[in-house]
């Protein structure tokens, strides 16, 4: 069963978080369904391990044939390796960074993505989903070279891809206080985020938004006081190239 993140009238936001439970060798990942009345979008639809159960689960809430967008934060396999099957299941275009638009056809049979990839420029874009829109916010190098987060103003949800990921937690239980969860977040962020400079730039951008919930692609949503606590935490976190020294670049014996 998906987790309902938001519902108001004909608007619904669902998180599918347990589609890999029978595949212990794969990282846990979340997939998201946006419903705006009679149209919808998928954010980060996942790999082939998730496809069948996501498709079947979605049909209980929304017909996949009515999707108007498939939206990808970046091009990792756990984000969009199932693209070939979604190209068959729907007529929706794929929105992804211009950095990756010529790479993701490698996930599909020849010619299958023709005319259906819309590149998001580095500055971001507004993606229409019926009468509403998703705002693609620049999140480059957090962790991919071309990377976007997606702001959904009606729900107050910021979908943050790999930023905010927590490991070994129940994704159905929102994080309301950050401190106890930092040990489950810190190693991942120190390795996968490129530098503190980028985190500071991101933090300054998102402080301008009335965020109710941060929802990453791995782990649990971040809500309430933990939203501001997370932004404060990453703003001062050394990571990525900040931590690299010559000792990390030596010829193996």
From TrEMBL:
Pfam families: ODP (PF19583)
Domain Metallo-beta-lactamase positions: 28-218
InterPro entries: Metallo-B-lactamas, ODP_dom, RibonucZ/Hydroxyglut_hydro
Gene3D superfamilies named among the record's database cross-references: Ribonuclease Z/Hydroxyacylglutathione hydrolase-like
Superkingdom: Bacteria
Name by which UniProt lists this protein: Metallo-beta-lactamase superfamily protein
Organism whose genome encodes this protein: Sphaerotilus mobilis
